[in-house]
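To whoever picks this up:

The parser on our side crashed when reading a file containing two proteins. I've narrowed it down to the boundary between the first structure block and the second sequence. Both blocks are reproduced below exactly, byte for byte. First block:
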Amino acid sequence: MFEKIFTIFFLRAFSILLLTVTTSSVSATEVTPEKTTVLENSACIQCHEKQNPSLIKDWQKSAHASAEPAVDCVSCHGSLHTNMTSTARRDKTCTNCHGGEKAPVAHSYASSKHGTLMRIEKNTYDWHQSFASANYRAPGCGYCHMHQNNHNVSRTVRHDLMSSRSGNSAIEKVQDATRAVCQDCHSPRYITRLLDNGEAMLEIARKKVREAKAVIEQAETNFSESQLAPAKTQFKKMQHHLRNVHLGVGHQSPDYQWWHGQPALDGDLLRIKDSIGELQRLKSINAANAKD
C-alpha cells in the first residue's frame, strides 16, 4: 500500500516538474530564440509588439511596410537571431535592395564625403553600436534614415520635389527630422546653412522643369502627340535629373548636385526647346511652300 502511494506521488511530482521545465523552456524561447531557430516575420512582430511596441508602430508607418512585397524584419535582419542588428546596420543590406551600388540613391551617397569615409573605415566599426550619439564617425544609410533606431525610414525622405519648403508643413517636418540626425555631429548654424543652400539649389532645378513644361504645353496647341513625343520623352528624363539634384542635396554629393543634376537639366531643357523649335521651323517652311 505504501509503495503504491509513493509511486503515485512520485509520478505526479515528476509530471509537475516536467511541465515546469517545458513551460520555462518555451517562455525562454519566446524572449530569446535559439541561434539556430529560423524566424518568420510574423514571429518577430508578435514578440516585439510586446517588448518594444513603438518599434513596430514606426515600421508600420514606413514605406518599407507599405511596399509590395513588404520590406519586413527578415528582409533586413535575416532569419536567424544571431547578429541581427549588426547585419541590418550595414549599408550593404540597404544597397542590395535599392538597386545596387551604382543606382543613384546609393551612388550619390557613396560619392559624398560621408560615403568616402564609410568606404575607408567600415571594417573598423563596431556595428553593434546603436544609431545615435555619433557612435559612427561616418553615418551610413541606417544612421540617417533609422536614427535612434526609429524604424520609420520615411521620416527623413522628401517625396514632393516640385513644391517649395516655405509654408509646407510636410517638407518642414522632414527637414526637422533630418536636422535631428545631423546635429549629432554638426553645429546648428552649419546644418541650417546646408538646408538653405539645398533648398535654393532645388528651386533652381524646379525653375528649369517648370520652363520645360510650359514650352511643351504651349506647343501642344500647334503640334500632335506624335510630333511632341521626343520632347515629352526628354521631359521624363528631366524628372530623373531633378531627383539627382535632390539626392545630391540630401547626401551632400557634389557630383549629383552638379554633374548628374543641374547641367543635365540644362541639357534636357535645351533639347526640348531645340526639338520644338525644329517643329516650328518645318511648319514655317511648309506654310511658305504651300503659298508658292
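<<boundary where parser fails>>
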Amino acid sequence: MKKTILSITLAAALCACANNSSKQAPAEQPSAPEAATETAAEPVEADADAAPAPDFTLNDINGKPLSLSSLQGKYVVLDFWGSWCVWCIKGIPKMKEYYQKYQGKFEILGIDCNDSEETWKEAVAKYELPWLHVYNDETSSKLLEAYGIQGFPTKIIISPEGKIVKTIIGEDPAFYAYLDQLFQ
C-alpha cells in the first residue's frame, strides 16, 4: 500500500513539472538519459560541434531588456523554472550553494515559465534568488521551443563561446557534478 501511494505521489509530482508540449528536443541537444548518466570520471570538454545557443532578449526583474548574448564570455546556466514546480523549488538551496561556491566563474539566468509576472517577482523575492532573472511571458512558447524544453526544471549550460554544452532535465545531482568538473 505504501509503495502504491509513493508511486502515485511521485508520478503526480513528475506530471506537475512536465511541460505539455509534444515537441521533440533538437537533435543537437543531449537527451535526458544522456544528461543523467554523465559520470564524474569523464573529462569535461566543450564539444566543437556543440549547437550554438539561440539568442533571446527578455525583460529582467526590473523591466529592462536582457539578452543572452550580453553574457557571452563566461559560462551561463539557463534555468527554466516556475514557482508552481515542486522540483524547481526543492532545488533552490543547492543552486544557491553552487552559485556561491563558484561565484564569478559562471552566471545563472533564471527563466520563469508559466507564472504571472507578479507571481514570478514574488517567488524571486521569497526565495531570495541572487542571480539574474528574466520573465518568459506565460503565453509565449517560442523560447521553450527553441531550446526543446520538455519539463521543469531544465538547466542548460552554455560555454563562454555561446555553445550548448550540457542539458539536464529535472533536479538531478549530475548537474552539480558537472559544475564541479567544470570549475575545479
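After patching the parser it read the second block fine. The first strand starts at residue 57 and ends at 60. The beta strands are 57-60, 65-67, 75-81, 106-113, 132-136, 154-158, 164-169.
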